[in-house]
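Hi X.,

You mentioned you wanted examples for the new student's onboarding notes, showing what a folding record looks like when two proteins sit in one file. Here is a clean example. The first protein comes first, with its sequence line followed by its structure tokens.
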Amino acid sequence: MAEIQQLVLDNAPQEICGILLGRDGRVNSYRIARNVAADPVRHFEIDPATLIAAERASRDGGDPILGYYHSHPAGTVEPSRTDAESAAPDGRLWLILNGRDAAAWRTADNGEIYGRFDAIMLDCSGANGQTAAE
């Protein structure tokens, strides 16, 4: 968690993004992805090549994709309407960070936030005091 938070700070004001990998609901690792959005200060889009590589690695026995992370360097760690519009209701995790705080969300049909996200507990054992979604 601390490494990703540092990436947020190092790349501000641009949003960062990447892929969360793991098993049984536990994130074991992450892949940094290039933000290929037209306006990376206001939006994020994970580089498709990174996403395809992660899918291939998973098929070859690596950890599956549990979800994604991205930053709101000048904002809150709550999903935006734009996040909700771009999120598939596939049950994957969305971790949102701002360089200080972090919160986790699961995508869902009819979610509590913008009809797309439900807050989930973020257990960051050893993650330097990160916060949980309330």
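Then the second protein repeats the pattern, sequence line and then tokens:
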Amino acid sequence: MTRVDRDVAVTGLGLVTPAGADEHTFWEGLCAGVSMARGCEELAGLPVDFGCPVDGIDLDGAVGGRAVWRMARFVKMALVAARQAVADAGLSPQRWDGDRVAVVLGVGVGGVSVLVDNVRRLDDGGADAVSPLLVPMMMPNAAAGEVAIDLRAHGPSLAPATACASGATAIAVARDLLLSDRCDVVVAGGAEAVLTPLVVSAFAGMGALSLRTGDPAGASRPFAADRDGFVIGEGAAALVLERAADAQARGGRARALLTGAGSATDAHHPTAPDPDGGGARKAVEAALREAGWAAHEVDHINAHGTSTPLNDAMESALVSGLFPHRPSVTAPKGVLGHTLAAAGAIEAVATVLTLEHGLVPPIANLDSLPDGFDLDCVVKEPRIQPVERALSHSFGFGGHNVVLAFQRAAVDGPPRTDPGVLAIA
């Protein structure tokens, strides 16, 4: 198979995020570089009482129909994002061959809020009080299953769970499905909605979260010298992927090319990254190898950038060691918080938009880098930069490392830049 034959096109994008529930609002929010973190009423009284929730969208109204009652929050967000992406791609479930359409949606936890609610019901009212919908609502593959039902997709329906790398894993799996000719269209991404007292308390108890309760908006600060942990967010993103030749043949628009994907495992610790970055480095090298790129050809890196001391230190050393030419670096979690299983998919969308607009969003709350962090971080305002090749990093608990390689799609003229976004600067 030639290099051209291995190109996969991103033809559709869909999002539900703390910065906005559509592409334009999301991009404006990301480029504004202002954190979406705020105090959350449901977390009141906890050691960490803030997060990055999805606001400003009526999910039940957006989903519509009678089936909404059987869906947990993460499923509703996934479905809204998937519909956006399919519409953006110019495709229709009424007209495609559903046997050749796959759905791959990464999820970390599933419907934990539904589970907690039913534990209370069991304690208060006994077995008869437990909802018969508990299992289909809480299971992690519910998002992939419901999206497949909605889109009439009869190809593979998968729900990879690689913690915070799940969304990126889904996109890598989608690429494999296309290149193996198992399907012609894949709706891939991730979804997570665990901004609940139980999950927040658990992450806080293990020391993973920022404790800046007096300054939620300043809490998520990737790569900053004074970072102290991440902020939990929620959201979903979906990308429509097709073989580039197929997209071109049907007259579809390639918004970017997914030219490579690499994955590797630390096999080091259940939660802490390998401080030497061995697994992450192998994932980067695999993505570069599959894309056919030399390291010096990478223009931009969308970093995992969690705002935790260990992860950011590992990633900084990785980037400066592999890319001494200092490509630009951004980290969306400063704005969005850490959306866990959705993060890799949301950040893949951000990377596609960076390629398309020729604009790199800034890292929120980054005032100064620690000694030894040799990174070209974009801060304060978006940077106008024609980007041809970019990597998106995703690293998860369990030592999962996934790196996606995106290339700007061939278009006539320079990258398009939205004047409305530039005005933010």
